[in-house]
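yo

u said u wanted the structure for the complex thing, so here. seqs first:
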Amino acid sequence: MYKTLVNYRKRRGTEEERRILTLLRDRGFAVIRSPASGSKRKDPVPDIVAMKDGVILLIEVKSRRNGKQVYVKRDQAEGILEFAHKSGGELFLAVKRPRELRFLKFSELRRTDGGNFVATEDAIRAGLDLDALVRYVESKFSKPLDSFL
Amino acid sequence: MYKTLVNYRKRRGTEEERRILTLLRDRGFAVIRSPASGSKRKDPVPDIVAMKDGVILLIEVKSRRNGKQVYVKRDQAEGILEFAHKSGGELFLAVKRPRELRFLKFSELRRTDGGNFVATEDAIRAGLDLDALVRYVESKFSKPLDSFL
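structre next:
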């Protein structure tokens, strides 16, 4: 019974990841879904890598039917933060709830005393929608210095 | 019999991709293997995405036991070139032969009259080995202009 619920959630999570992948692709991103997505591995990788004109977004997706806060456990968070740091990209938490999709900068999430990361209801509401995310990425396009020399 | 051979080649190709993934990870890259790798899809994605400090490498892997030239078919090549273009990264062909691994800039491959891409024996020998690839990537690290302002 518990296992069935876990599998159901995993399948639904996968569907949401695919949907977000398609949304980003339609906005001109080169996108790739992690094969490790949804599974536990010693080498953690974010669910989605989305790239556009040299800007790298790493996106961890959390899909929720209800509930106000979204938690990312310490171990998982530290793994994907390390991945993001090596890549030189920026890590986002995508929160998918009914009729709502928000992208939150991971660096702005609150940490609990236990070291877990939490997106509060307020933080989720203040997150970027897809349009705002695209504008944010476009604002980061900047030519390297040597292209001016 | 033919199908067995195809499956054998695919499995060996997957092993080589994993090995290259590990080599790059050990050199400080954030790496991800395409889930589409080895399968035909309408939305082509290179086998490996490797990122380091904002530099994006897209890598298509061709593993060969023997044979001098390596071909990439026009349709596949155009798909992954488009992906690379959108991402702002640079596309490489990794040629794995016994006791040899070379990374070739896709932009320097020769095109046949039919539009396919070919890595000649000379081009493969002149390709970058892993150390040279890492040095090449490190030479591309450059701060965006606004970090100087």
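The longest helix of chain A spans residues 2-26. Helices of chain A lie at 2-26, 74-87, 121-125, 130-140.
cya
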